[in-house]
Write a structure and sequence with these properties.
By secondary structure, this protein is of the alpha/beta class. Helices cover about 40% and strands about 20% of the residues.
Length: about 280
């Protein structure tokens, strides 16, 4: 221990000098660690970004505008249309452009609101049913329209084949209502409307999306574009689903909770990329 003030200053100076090589060493280690992490991330499909402002439009809106500029007579099918407004990324485009669309929604109250939204657009046809693996009827779970969820716009969007899906959103067991709804397969829907194919398929089925996409991939004429919610698909199902999409000729991009998959035949319409000469 230093006995005088001058000895104290000398002791601190020596301490700083003795720590200086360690600080250099630590800085080098942290830099190398950062470079290693960045190198590893560059080998994955993920990005680390600083927080950005929320997006002000959905990538699916851009895809719709582009696709219908080339295919004005195309048909859109929406599975899980809900009320036609709440968190619906395609409703505005359908109403503005008055394209041919077939919208499917099984819940009575949501279907009633859906009819009101599209009542003045004759090119839109509505189906009150769920899409399932076979025709018939099925048990569906929805939030009871009483109590604390009476005026909620979110609760109707959670309706699902899976009761656990509602519990995951904070709905209590006594607030869940089991109902029986009519259902039909995607193939039967196509036959009902005499479609040669679905051009653009929009899916939001609260956990059943992977199954609907697989149904679409099994059709003789697969959709050109498929936009679906990826948030509630299990990791195992995601792995299988994206293998199927790739094998069927699709490329994709993700936007928040949704994935937009485009068939390569759509990409081919973009033409060859333009290569500009590099200035020296």
């Amino acid at each position: 221990m230093p006995k005088t003030i001058s000895e104290g200053f000398k002791h601190r100076a020596l301490s700083k000098r003795s720590r200086f090589p360690y600080q250099i060493y630590r800085g080098k280690v942290m830099y190398q660690l950062k470079q290693l992490i960045l190198s590893l991330l560059s080998k994955t499909p993920y990005n680390l970004q600083k927080k950005l402002p929320a997006s002000t439009f959905e990538s699916v809106e851009l895809a719709l505008a582009y696709y219908w500029s080339l295919n004005p007579d195309a048909t859109l099918v929406q599975i899980g249309a809900c009320d036609g407004v709440s968190n619906d990324p395609i409703s505005g485009f359908i109403r503005r452009q008055k394209i041919r669309a077939i919208l499917v929604e099984p819940i009575e109250n949501s279907f009633r609101k859906l009819k009101t939204v599209y009542e003045d657009i004759p090119s839109v046809e509505l189906v009150q049913a769920a899409i399932a693996q076979q025709d018939g009827s099925v048990t569906f779970y929805k939030v009871s329209e009483t109590g604390r969820w009476t005026d909620s716009t979110c609760a109707p969007q959670w309706s699902s084949f899976n009761k656990q899906h509602l519990l995951k959103h904070g709905v209590k067991l006594n607030e869940i209502e089991a109902i029986t709804v009519p259902c039909l397969s995607l193939r039967s829907l196509i036959e009902q409307f005499d479609l040669s194919k679905i051009d653009f398929l929009q899916i939001d089925t609260e956990g059943f999306d992977a199954t609907v996409v697989e149904m679409a991939l099994s059709l003789e004429n697969t959709p050109d574009c498929i936009n679906f919610e990826n948030a509630h698909i299990t990791p195992q199902d995601k792995e299988s689903l994206f293998r199927s999409l790739e094998a069927s000729g699709y490329v994709w991009t993700h936007n928040g909770l949704n994935t937009l998959a485009l068939h390569r035949r759509v990409i081919s319409q973009w033409g060859e990329p333009v290569h500009f000469p590099i200035a020296h």
